[in-house]
Amino acid sequence: MSARQIQWDTPQQESVREHYDDLYFLKKAPEAGSIITTRYKGHDVRLKVLERADGKTSIAEVIGIGASGPDEQTLDLGKGDTVLVPDDKRAFVVNDDEDDD
């Protein structure tokens, strides 16, 4: 299967691995069918895992991008793209605090 190599953003405090650092042995690695999230150029990207390339990387299909309008066209990444996602680039979805009122 052909998959693109992407320069994902570093997830920082939203990192799945960092969150489960002490308990990571309890957290299963994604498997085929899992839905995962990462960041690309400041946007949340949702992906469906197609297969595991090795013990630390998923081959996944982009199923959604948290962007709309002009930004979406400049991302050079779209729904249906198949990409490689290292486990250390997985992230939690960032919630926008403005909607909490």
Please summarize what this structure is:
The protein has two helices and four strands; from the N terminus they run αβββαβ. The protein is mostly beta strands and 101 residues long.
Work out the strand percent. Answer: 25-35%
**Morphology:** globular
**Distance between termini?**
45 Å
Q: Calculate Rg over CA atoms.
A: 14 Å
Largest sheet: 4 strands, antiparallel
What's the arrangement of strands in the largest beta sheet? 1-2-3-4
Runs with pLDDT <50, length 5+?
Answer: 97-101
What is the N-to-C order of secondary-structure elements (H for helix, E for strand)? HEEEHE
Description:
This protein has helices spanning 16-19, 70-73, and strands spanning 35-40, 43-54, 57-65, 82-86. It contains two helices and four strands. The chain has a four-stranded antiparallel sheet, with no helix packed on it. With 101 residues, the chain is mainly beta. It starts with 15 loop residues before the first helix and ends in a 15-residue tail after the last strand. The radius of gyration is 14 Å and the shape is globular.
